[in-house]
Amino acid sequence: MKVISLANQKGGVGKTTTAINLGTALAAVGQRVLLVDLDPQGNASTGIGIENSARQKSTYDVLVERLPISAAALPTIVPNLSIVPATSDLSSVDITLSGESNRANRLRDCLRSESGDYDYVLVDCPPALNLLTLNALSAANSVLVPLQCEFFALEGLTQLLSTIKEVRSALNPKLEIEGIVLTMYDRRNNLCHQVAADARQTLGEMVFETVIPRNVRLSEAPSHAMPALLYDETSAGSLAYQRLAAELRSRSAGA
Amino acid sequence: MKVISLANQKGGVGKTTTAINLGTALAAVGQRVLLVDLDPQGNASTGIGIENSARQKSTYDVLVERLPISAAALPTIVPNLSIVPATSDLSSVDITLSGESNRANRLRDCLRSESGDYDYVLVDCPPALNLLTLNALSAANSVLVPLQCEFFALEGLTQLLSTIKEVRSALNPKLEIEGIVLTMYDRRNNLCHQVAADARQTLGEMVFETVIPRNVRLSEAPSHAMPALLYDETSAGSLAYQRLAAELRSRSAGA
Ligand SMILES: Nc1ncnc2c1ncn2[C@@H]1O[C@H](COP(=O)(O)OP(=O)(O)OP(=O)(O)O)[C@@H](O)[C@H]1O
Ligand SMILES: Nc1ncnc2c1ncn2[C@@H]1O[C@H](COP(=O)(O)OP(=O)(O)OP(=O)(O)O)[C@@H](O)[C@H]1O
Ligand SMILES: [Mg+2]
Ligand SMILES: [Mg+2]
């Protein structure tokens, strides 16, 4: 079982969209995938079609009550893809767990006892370097960083990479960087070219070959409560996430 | 002096872009404006041209050491526009102030003693409903909510509006909603139309007439360390923010 956390404290860069669609693309080729929605906004849960009323058990219960993952995970409309949904209660986790010594390792401990059921676990993080994201980085084998091709997005990367180093020395010595995936790429836009070139120059191999284009079907799909791969399988966005899934598997295999 | 906080826990919706460009548009018509950068990413500080090396005093010192605003505020390349810059230290404020009783009112107390110097104070918030955003909501006369015309963005609005109600009853009884401004509007995109129509239908008068279009000059300007109004004054983005400033002033005057 490989645990990959989708993290970037910069907001709106495509963390949730990547978690949902990469998860679906892996499930589509037979991998058993679990999504863990660690964002109080619950966008991954909504985007994959889990109504609020169905979120009786959630990641809040897993982190705070140590509910086993198997008791919280729900099937989705995608075969081989399950999710532990999120509710807005998650935003109080910083306060609820503030006295606990082991509070950053809660998710890691819960996932440890589930390792037989899934091939991949994808954790969708909120846009902050807070206790929720720390739980995701502590539990992860690797971090996948969606990077929007925009000026502000590049600026936040240094902070994120230094946080990953801190987590590696304090909480999770084996934490690796799975890679950086360029998102919302618009080939007509000079700034995009520039940011992408800068990223490849400074980060080299860490940047995935696959680039996710800006594609309206990716942003329409959540309003139909399904991943883009089901909403419009041959759209540029869906095809890009299928390529990303293939590249992810070949990079891990080669490792 | 009117304190307006730019808040929305959904990431990447245009909080920083609105703070910088609305601030500049108000300064351009003679209003004395202070930006307060409350985001550990420091995007507003970078976007207005404040190098990291110039951020010796920052919002961290204001919140934690109770440094007076006048000792932290820096002039910018825009006449009439100053900024209290942010550094990544801000991300530890939750922990540093965790034992303090009055921790959500730190910014409010600091701004109280500055009221003579500015006509407007715009506070740029991080994408989270955390202690930093609570400080901004406690200090504010009103909240301006940038709303991206996307499905996920609409979903987060309910959480934000209920947090504003909670803050009104617990911390700041006079907190009003200045309005909701639609951002990154692309008239060729059906989803945009739909989200904009939904927002106007459910929120009515709260939604500003002025809509900010998706405009590449707005995302290019920060890489030149200046607001779009200086980078390209006649671009669609700049003109929209000038209209927004005019509408903001006429809405307040009419109040
Ligand atoms: N490649 C793409 N093309 C077009 N739209 C996209 C693309 N990727 C994401 N989006 C849209 O952009 C917005 C931001 O994406 P998303 O919500 O996935 O980012 P996020 O990093 O998870 O945001 P947050 O920081 O709030 O958690 C969403 O409305 C989404 O539908
Ligand atoms: N109207 C617009 N047209 C085109 N690009 C825009 C527009 N508004 C903002 N952007 C770009 O979109 C990205 C997100 O905007 P911005 O950083 O202002 O959002 P934010 O809400 O402050 O994000 P965060 O939640 O991370 O603080 C930035 O790269 C910005 O340059
Ligand atoms: Mg998200
Ligand atoms: Mg911002």
TrEMBL record, chains A, B:
- Pfam families membership: AAA_31
Q: Which SUPFAM superfamilies match?
A: P-loop containing nucleoside triphosphate hydrolases
Sequence ranges assigned to domain AAA in this UniProt record:
1-177
What role does this protein play? Answer: Involved in chromosome partition. Localize to both poles of the predivisional cell following completion of DNA replication.
Write the protein's name. Chromosome partitioning protein ParA
